[in-house]
Amino acid sequence: MEKNVSASVINRLPRYYRYLGELLNSGVERISSKELSERMGVTASQIRQDLNCFGGFGQQGYGYNVEYLYGEISAILGLNSKYKAILVGAGNIGHALTRNTNFEKRGFELIGIFDNDPQKIGMEIRNLTVMDPKNMKEFVEREKPTMAILSVPRAVVNQVAQELISYGIKAFLNFSYAELSTNDDVVVENIHLGDSLMRLCYKISEADAKK
Amino acid sequence: MEKNVSASVINRLPRYYRYLGELLNSGVERISSKELSERMGVTASQIRQDLNCFGGFGQQGYGYNVEYLYGEISAILGLNSKYKAILVGAGNIGHALTRNTNFEKRGFELIGIFDNDPQKIGMEIRNLTVMDPKNMKEFVEREKPTMAILSVPRAVVNQVAQELISYGIKAFLNFSYAELSTNDDVVVENIHLGDSLMRLCYKISEADAKK
After folding, report:
1. Considering the entire predicted model, what is its pTM?
2. Cα→Cα distances B75→A202, B43, B71, B98, Å
């Protein structure tokens, strides 16, 4: 089902998923592409086109069944998985992510947190005790997490990633302000907060130019 | 120059900009689309296509002049602007962003920080003193910032945004785990860290399916 889907559709699916989740929570059972488009600020034809990539779940004159569509998108994204994840670097970003994110609804289970700051080792975050990176090898080889969230300083991120890959980690969510260089077997999602500032700067310049 | 450029090209420009900045720092004067594509992990034809949107800065057999291309992308993104920005909510995300981001190179100047936590008011972050939100109206009307970074709790984000719009703010970088509902005059860049987790989950599932 997930074949031949473009990266930009995949990029939009999490947003559909969040919106449908909110609709579901408010007791909405079905929605037309027109209504969904108004809420989401995209065109109705974009929505129909995107959802058609997966065989289309809409019915003429009825619209989309919210619960069904929510379930299908969840399945496409693989959110029913429980991939084990560790967090390396319990600084501000790591904290923000662990406090505010429902990992379980995003396909992951957070099983370990590491930080080399002696003041953080032993601290409790989200019912997990921050561990010394000295124990990382033993932990990863025993627990076999699939993914690591990296929020370590830019200067060391590639070294940390290589180390984790050698222990068997296959995926990274990278917050470290540097792009990871990895081989094809490893999947990476880079988050560059500065890029969002640049995109916003572009939008502001563009809006100014239109005046 | 910036007309008729698709959103997905714009989305990729910050990454080109970062890469070219790194090349520039390492003293590289010119680069072929092939070399640039290998470093960035995208196809050479994608790069040529993207940069052609702006008239194309490459020369057959020579490649791209790094400094020139860097300057052009900077101009397209509007990064030479100095849009004044304020940060509302000096929690983990706000801290991470202010500590690690070179606002000045991203088109912005951070001029004020607000938080309603009495323990944070008066604190120094990046040479700025955290202010009480009671003073926000007076400050915004006097200093006229263009943009606000919102890292406030999800439950209050729309209320805070409406308040800031009424004082004259026209753009938001929103970290608040809720989408902003604003009018067409206001530009918004939403950052949903959970969406990145979902995208990564999809990539892992897809890689698993290929095995």
Report:
1. 0.87
2. 9, 24, 6, 24
The verdict on B61 touching A (C-beta cutoff 8 Å) is no
Fold of B7-76: Arc Repressor Mutant, subunit A (1.10.10)
Any idea where the domains of chain A sit in the sequence? 7-76, 83-194
Instruction: Give strand ranges (E) for B80-170.
Output: 83-88, 108-114, 124-125, 128-131, 147-150
Q: What is the pLDDT of residues B133-179, one digit of tens each?
A: 999 999 999 999 999 999 999 899 999 999 999 999 999 999 988 88
| CB half-sphere exposure, B154, CA atoms < 13 A | 8
Higher pLDDT, B203 or A5: B203
Q: What is the pLDDT of residue A6?
A: 78
Is A78 in the B-facing interface, judged by CB distances under 8 Å? yes
User: Given phi > 0 = left and psi -120 to 50 = alpha, else beta, which region is B132?
Assistant: beta
Per-position b or e across A135-144, b if 16+ CB within 10 A of its CB? ebeebbeeee
Q: At residue B14, what are phi and psi to the nearest 5 degrees?
A: -60, -35
Q: Which among A10, A173, A197 is the nearest to B173, CB-wise?
A: A197
Q: Are B58 and B51 in contact (CB under 8 A)?
A: yes
Residue A1 has pLDDT above 50, yes or no: no
The two structure tokens encoding residue B101: 């981001």
**Closest by Cβ to B189, choosing from A18, A106, A203:** A203
What is the DSSP-derived secondary structure letter of residue A105? G
Structure tokens at A100: 């505010």
Structure tokens at A147: 């993914």
The ipTM estimated for the assembled molecules is: 0.89
Of B210 and B88, which is predicted with more confidence? B88
Highest mean pLDDT among A192-206, B33-47, B136-150, B168-182: B136-150
Q: Which residues of A73-88 are buried (b: 16+ CB within 10 A; e: fewer)?
A: bbebbbbebebbbbbb
Which residues sit opposite A30 in a β-bridge?
Answer: A65
Question: Which residue would you say has higher pLDDT here, A51 or A66?
Answer: A66
**In this structure, which topology does domain B83-194 adopt according to CATH?**
Rossmann fold (3.40.50)
| Cβ-proximal residues to B176 (8 Å cutoff; 6+ apart), any chain | B89, B150, B151, B152, B153, B154, B157
